[in-house]
Amino acid sequence: MLERFINAAAGRVKADVVLKNASYVNVFTGRVDKGDIAIVADRIVGIGSYEGEREIDVEGLTVLPGYIDGHVHIESSMLSPEEFASLVVPRGTTSIIADPHEITNVCGLDGLDYIYRASQSVPLDVHIQLPSCVPATPFETSGAVLTSKDIASAICRSEVFGLGEFMNFPGVISADGEVVKKLEAAHAAGKIIDGHAPGVSGRELNAYLSGGISTDHECATPEEMRQKAALGMYVQLRHCSSVHDSAANCAAVDAGNMRRFIMCTDDRHAADLRKVGHLDDALRTVVAAGLDPVWAVTMTTLNCAECYGLKFRGGIAPYWFADLVVVDDLKNFNAKYVFKDGVLVAEDGQPLFDTSVRYLPKSVLGSVHIPRMKPEDFIVALRGERARVIKITPGSILTDLEVCPVKSRDGDVVCDGDILKLAVVERHKGTGNIGRGLIKGYGFKGGAMGITIAHDSHNLILLGDDNAAMAEAANILADIGGGMVLVDNQTRTVHSLPLDIGGLMSSKGADEVIAQSAALYELAYAKGVNRGLAAFMSLAFLSLAVIPHVKLLDTGLFDVDKFTFTSLDADEE
Questions:
Q1: Cis preceding linkage at 135, omega within 30
Q2: Are residues 56 and 179 in the same domain?
Q3: How far is residue 110's CA from residue 131's CA, in Å, rounded to a whole number?
């Protein structure tokens, strides 16, 4: 094959495919250059003037390296890996760094194995990170536990690319023995370690980085991004469905630090992938916010490839892999053609590959194990008349703690005004654990809603103003094997979307999942949910104990800032 590459590059034989009259982003020079792009098999062999067995005239369009997502949880799309690829590849994404943290918390290493095997049939490079924090904290109940010994064994597997985001940043900073062993195992295996360090700065940041952690995607401000880039981190500019700060945070990027930034989506829902896109939407957003488009493309391609050691990916040059996306311009980034390893795999936004046959092992099915729930399970009893209430902020996964006056009747809190009940039910081991709390700012009225996606341990999370409706919602989620549900007391109806794969993803096609999800969302908004929230997915972050400031776990109300539990009863010392 090397002989073919050389002969075609020298013009002695025709290339397999030539993109004629191309304008392309040269990520090595920061310019837009011109020339035919010649492809043989899976490689680019030359740029200049070439003839090919197949020639595609791309005059008036712009050729870019295939996009690389620096950090994504496929599970958050609610789609199988095959269906996820059917939405992102036509948008120009050709490689992803996938952290199967969600399904591994539910199914253990069987979940990681599922994501890997299901990804083998699609034209998308899926580099699997071994989840580092299963569970994310020792304060909650997950479906699996990966100890340092488990990490040391699994990190050496050939399909494992690196160690996933290290969310237990307090453990790293304090040099916790078990944490250090996990980090040492990754270093011994020669694998990269991803980070997760929201708001960490100063000496604590130095301590975190001294664990040998390379990246971070949790920066809340441009200043935080600059500080971390200045200390050598690859800082991931996140463009996801639940957090909308990429336009503001791209202000951190300048000529001096541009090569330390990469793009990622982290959590991207199926409806957003279908409607507005993946990394193409990230590019549109940051360019519209004023970021130089060539810098933005470089961050989405070469920077990410270099961060993760993806050799000969992320650029347009001889012998580099022919992962290419041909777009209309550097403003809209609408993909006309997408090539993966030299093969045309998508055209005009449509995949040219089949995803109808999907890998679906029994090991990721039937994952909801709870006792039959009763209305009295959701009684919230207070000793006093004030409670610590979770306050949600639209457009953010950060939550605040607010002390509010509450009313009780017959030993149970009355959902009055804007205050609702919140519950997290352990769903992996049938322990019967129920974390009970209160929430303000969601807006829902007249029943209950629930979901089995609840970062990061993915216990069952419920919200409502009626105990019986909350119990019914929990039982339905168990019956359907996980998913989303809404119980409407006014119409006496129940609506649900099954997510049979680990209670996180559906084995159905993307369009069916999107349609059912959209219908549920509209029902929730009709029930009063604040339209500034993602009706169901905002629930999913209310038990994420590594994101400030207060969360609810199956074991109780948790103060993330103090990294300890706190009482729901504000009148209790």
A1: yes
A2: no
A3: 12
Residue 516 in domain: yes
Residue 186's SS3 state is: helix
Q: What is the mean pLDDT of the chain?
A: 96
pLDDT category, 572, cuts 50, 70, 90? confident
Do the domain assignments include residue 570?
A: no
CB 229 within 8 A of CB 254: no
Distance in angstroms (rounded) separating the CA atoms of residues 281 and 333: 8
Q: Is there a domain that residue 359 lies in?
A: no
- Domain boundary pick from 349, 373, 394: 349
DSSP-assigned beta bridge partners for residue 448: 464, 487
CATH classification at residue 240: 3.20.20.140
Domain encompassing residue 322: 1-63+316-349
pLDDT, residue 393, reads 83
Q: Is 333 in the same domain as 482?
A: no
Bridge partners, 402 (sequence order): 389
- pTM of the entire predicted model: 0.93
User: Tens of pLDDT along 254-279?
Assistant: 999 999 999 999 999 999 999 999 99
Retrieve residue 379's tokens: 């009684």
Tokens at 252, concatenated = 């951190």
Residues 189 and 270 in one domain: yes
Are 393 and 537 within one domain?
yes
Backbone torsion region of residue 382, taken as left when φ is above 0, otherwise alpha when ψ lies between -120 and 50, otherwise beta: beta
Half-sphere exposure of 341 toward its Cβ, with a 13 Å CA cutoff? 5
Same structural domain, 136 and 92: yes
Question: Residue 350 is inside which H or E element, if any?
Answer: strand 350-351
Give the C-alpha separation, 125 to 72, whole Å: 13
Tokens at 535, concatenated: 């009706």
pLDDT in tens, 444-455: 999 999 999 998
Contact residues for 97 (Cβ-Cβ < 8 A; gap 6+): 68, 69, 70, 71, 72, 127, 129, 161, 162, 194, 264, 304, 308
The DSSP secondary structure of 549-561, one letter per residue, reads SEEEETTEEEETT
pLDDT tens string 370-417: 999 999 999 999 999 999 999 998 877 889 999 999 999 999 999 988
The stretch 512-528 carries a mean pLDDT of 96
Residues 393 and 456 in one domain: yes
